């Protein structure tokens, strides 16, 4: 008599019974997550403590004590100093263009401060230039595309600059691939002399791109889910813009103080929306347009060429493209002021840029 276990149907039934527990055990390990990674709670808690200190100290009168010594980013005394520009570099690789920036900063250190946020996973080699040496801020945390970590890094830079020197009145966020297009005095005059004269308040404006009619806006709005941004951010208030900007001090404080919109934008995007997830291009223009639209120019001072973008990255200028004509063309702007910075340049472009630094870039 044949064994019942010899039946192919019986064997299939046994295999099915054995596979059910295996499916329940392995499924969570095999199935892809529905959302991209979120910001770790520990990072969020540490950042919030930093932001609270920055907001409180920005609202308090500066003490009349001598400048703080010892701590690199300690609170400095404000002794009727002229307004300064805080240059905030966000990088995940070597600061190859530091020698060019050093020439840009030369002779103007009393009017600027420098802060670098470097991804801790990057093997970073800072060129031995005086301005960049020792300027990496404490508490840097990992950053990644398609996540709100780039927003956190920018807010961390803003908070650090607010805490460090009360004379910081303008905050220029730049990447490691940005280069200057004008000498420092040209930038400084544009920032200091610009104000909301039309409103009667005479407050300096922020230079940040704010767009409300891009074709990709609907897909970007639902990147976290169809109704994920409601009720705080209805679709008609959602904006897009460049992640690089120059903020006036009151807007820097506004960004660091914000919790309401941050709770929406820090939520991780859906995996299926990865190609539409650029939180750093949405959070800043949306927040500032909702809270102080008249205080923003709605255009950026950083020129970017998107004509042949690849994988979300703009055109990268190669050494053979660098020339005086290129610099003069990149300066052209539809705004009141010409572009002051440009990206994205390949590291190998440093040599040609240095060759025309004195004759073109730093001659205005």
Automatic annotation (TrEMBL):
Parts of the chain that traverse the membrane: 6-27
GO cellular component: membrane
A GO term for molecular function: glycosyltransferase activity
One Pfam family here: Branch
GTP-binding listed as a keyword: no
Domain of life, per lineage: Eukaryota
Topology with respect to the bilayer: Single-pass type II membrane protein
Signal peptide start-end: none
Keywords, alphabetical: Glycoprotein, Glycosyltransferase, Membrane, Transferase, Transmembrane, Transmembrane helix
Compartments, as annotated in UniProt: Membrane
Protein's name in the database: Uncharacterized protein
């Amino acid at each position: 008599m044949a064994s019942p276990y010899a039946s192919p149907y019986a064997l299939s039934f046994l295999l099915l019974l054995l596979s059910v527990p295996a499916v329940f055990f392995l499924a969570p390990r095999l199935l892809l997550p529905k959302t991209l990674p979120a910001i770790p709670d520990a990072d969020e808690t540490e950042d919030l403590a930093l932001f609270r200190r920055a907001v409180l100290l920005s609202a308090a009168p500066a003490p009349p004590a001598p400048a703080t010594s010892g701590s690199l980013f300690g609170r400095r005394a404000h002794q009727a100093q002229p307004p300064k520009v805080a240059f905030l570099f966000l990088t995940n690789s070597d600061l190859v263009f530091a020698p060019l920036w050093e020439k840009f900063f030369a002779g103007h250190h009393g009017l600027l401060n420098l802060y670098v946020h470097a991804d801790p996973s990057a093997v970073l080699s800072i060129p031995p230039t005086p301005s960049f040496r020792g300027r990496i801020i404490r508490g840097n945390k990992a950053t990644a595309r398609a996540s709100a970590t780039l927003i956190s890094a920018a807010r961390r830079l803003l908070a650090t600059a607010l805490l460090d020197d009360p004379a910081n009145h303008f905050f220029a966020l730049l990447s490691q691939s940005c280069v200057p297009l004008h000498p420092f005095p040209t930038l400084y005059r544009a920032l200091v002399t610009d104000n909301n004269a039309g409103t009667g308040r005479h407050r300096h404006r922020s230079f940040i791109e704010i767009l409300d009619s891009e074709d990709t806006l609907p897909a970007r709005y639902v990147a976290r889910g169809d109704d994920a941004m409601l009720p705080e951010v209805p679709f008609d208030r959602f904006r897009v813009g460049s992640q690089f900007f120059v903020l006036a001090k009151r807007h820097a404080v506004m960004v660091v103080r914000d919790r309401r919109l941050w709770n929406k934008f820090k939520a991780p995007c859906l995996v299926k929306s990865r190609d539409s997830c650029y939180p750093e291009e949405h959070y800043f223009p949306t927040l500032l347009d909702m809270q102080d639209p008249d205080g923003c120019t709605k255009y950026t001072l950083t020129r970017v060429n998107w004509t042949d973008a690849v994988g979300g990255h703009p055109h990268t200028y190669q050494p053979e493209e660098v020339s005086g004509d290129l610099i003069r063309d990149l300066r052209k702007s539809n705004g009141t002021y010409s572009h002051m910075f440009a990206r994205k340049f390949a590291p190998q472009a440093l040599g040609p840029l240095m060759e025309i630094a004195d004759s073109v870039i730093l001659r205005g």
